[in-house]
Amino acid sequence: MKQRILVTAGLPYANGSIHLGHLVGYCQADFYVRAHKRLGENAIYICADDTHGTPIELNAARQGVKPTELIERYHKEHKRDFAQFDVAFDYFGSTNNDTNREIVERVYHELRQKEALEDRSLDGNWCEKDERFLPDRFIKGECPNCNAADQYGDVCEVCGKTYSPTDLKNARCVLCGGTPVIRKSDHVFFKLSAAPNVEFLRNWIESGALLSDTANYVKSWLDSGLRDWCISRDGPYFGFAIPDRPGKFFYVWLDAPLGYVSASVEWGQQNKIDFTELWQAPDKTRIEHFIGKDIVYFHTLFWPAVLKAVGYTLPSAIHVNGMLTVEGEKMSKTRGTFINAATFAEHIEPQALRYYYACRSGADSSDLDLSFEDFVLRVNSELVNKHANLFSRMSQFLSQKLDNCLGDLPFLAQEAQAAPLLTTNEINSMVEQARRVVAACRRVEELYRKREFGQVVRELAGVADIGNEFMQSAKPWEQLKTDPEKARETLTFAANVCYALAMYLWPIVPKFSEAGARVLGTTIDSIDATRLFAERKRKLGTFERLFERIERKQIDAIVDASKQSMPDTNASKKTNSAETTAGVIQLGELIEYDQFSKVDLRVGLIVNAESVPKSQKLIRLEVDLGEGSSRQIIAGIAQSYSPNVLVGTRIVVVANLKPAKLMGLESRGMVLAAGETTNMSLLRIEKELAPGTKVK
User: Fold this and answer.
1) Which parts of the chain have pLDDT scores under 50?
2) Which of 68, 178, 478, 667 is most deeply packed, by most CB within 10 A?
């Protein structure tokens, strides 16, 4: 049996929605796995939600739900978004299950036995009121570097400096607002800086698992000296408890990558393949990781050192994708260029983004820029005007003029497999054009293996050009007048070019290719150049449009929708409202009490809540305001709350707002909430006040 290729992609964090930046790496890995499968390789694509850690614990607390409810909501959402973009995992699991717990504990015990761990005492922030150590997201204060206020305990969002939580000035607990005290706490460290690990990593980096640009980057970290890695956190903590260390939990960065192992083990259980074959037999299974630039340090240093220590298979390749920029700049919530996958899919067929990402992707870790103008131009000029247009011209001509039936070709399929001659007097012959197509397709096979997806797209655009130019040159509409069978021959050649496109575009735009195969009246389940130019003397399928042109107004709608779903942090520069400078909040323009008194705020009791069909942002609420019957209010909180957790909640409602229509539904009022769309917190009423009670 062929060696299995087990491909993983960096685990999405179950604390927010999938956005276009995330999709770069997932799509590239998907192109790669799909191509290998169709080329006859035994490839599988494994992933899981990363579900533990302080941010999830804190976000769940803000929303008034259990962490398990929060991660389950995002797990469903992530699976939906990946499916919309045809990211086809063979298995998509979760790190919060017994399989992963057992593997984490097993690895921990093996590391103990190998003396790869060490216990040390550290200073920590202790909240006496909450009786707990405060992880970095549970503490805020002034940055020790630039003095910016309201910064978390790990990194300053103003100057970018990282630091220890105990370095914060004027620190306070985010739970109670109290001042923490410094206490000693025992923690577990993986001895990454030990000489055997350093020597091993230097050799492994030279093994070819990393491309040179990434390898040179990692060498600089080795040269500057490695730090031991703390793999424990103080409880309470949303994660797995360390079996022999009461009150301590495994740090998420230990159990998350082991999610690669546990998810593939669960896949193996479904397919009767044992753990040893997957993770302890490199001759049977090759491991390849696809990751983003932001997690290179962990995946190229800590992770291989842990795998080596416990005897698991080391990755043969770590493929690093660059970051996504939009219009040449970092994605921006203010400009509406921080776009969630679901928002994009509401307005544009996701196959278009897959195609564009392939156009802009190479094997190295260069950043990828999404230029809206270039995106529209590429999709319309190539996917629509070249590829879809060839299918359309060929299919409609045959169905309308020639009984929708292919004829024969003046050469055998085997003759098309020869290398093109490209001599002056032969270049325009039909068989030579067929040979050019086959040669290009063979190059595409190797380009897929090398992850040179941009070159794949260029080669296939050239194949489409051969088909379109041949039809234009042969003029089957003229041939039809004097020699209908000659016209049929021309269209048969074009149909075979379409067959090649459907075969080789499938890893990038599977829905497009499958629709193309239906138009051809066939199915294509492999990538095999020897099957090219064998389609003759048979009926075609029914014509269908393969792709619609993209209009600029669709892009504008996505940007507008993204602006609406993200608060404008620069609004003050336009309206003199809230502004942040060096972490200091500047409040909005002063108003008179008479202006404020016009707003009628009431206590509302949510008696029913349900999702709004075809919307990823809206929830339809029925709210009791003490009026005898409930009101319908449409609220944009679906990315922070699931409907089932809202019923019975007392909230604050703007009761005298004029009715408005959202998605065709009338909304009579507005609920008050704080935070961003993907991390909102409703303003709740603590006591059981009667619905309709005035908020003063």
Assistant:
1) 566-586
2) 667
